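Memo to structure team: turn this sequence into structure tokens by end of day. - J.P.
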Amino acid sequence: MSPKIVEYITYGGVSIVNAIPAWLGGAIAIDLKVKVTVNEGSCNMNDFLLFILNYLEREFNSKINVCINVNSEVPSASGLKSNSAVAAGVIYAMMRFMDRDINPVEAARLTAIITRAHGSSITGAFDDASAAILGGAVLTDNKSMKIIKQLPISELKVLITGYKEKKKLSNIDRLKSLSGIYRELFNIALNGDLWRATTINGILVAESLRYHRALDTIGAALGLGAVTAGVSGNGPAIFAMFKPGRRDRL
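Reply from structure team:
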């Protein structure tokens, strides 16, 4: 009998609305893949994978002898939803490995619970986990872990830069203080003006966390026809989305 193997692919993403100020968030999956492979046996795993595995062992009161391998195209610590994509892929693959039924939304909820327990996410990033596993765009209430709206996205070209710069979290309280503005921003996205909300969010994150050079890049992208541009997550990555054929000038 051949060893049991489960593979699953999730995706990185960019922010529509940062969930930190008001717990209301949104994210769009992009074509940066995270491939998770779960095999029978044992191997060396990093602390994040071991935390997820130990959490699942406690949750299901079961010792699980597995080797988890992750092949990720998403730069870590970039704001491009790497942690959520990895955790969502690992959790969904592990549940299938354990022959436990779980739908993608439940897997995203469990991802949010585990990443918050780990301390790698302030809110649990239910929006990021949902986009990673469902694809498209999602708008969520991260406190109640409910998907408020799910939207398909037409094909766009995504340009990403700045992801190798240093993350700036010392001014996160400035972002948290914008809760009222962010509730309104979430409503703008919810009412259909997704790209305007995404751009305003990206500018507010750049200004709040002092990614000042990012503002020039965002402005340049918009000037060259980007449908939206901004800082993703808590940075440092800057992204711009273009209709096909429009990104080459930037």
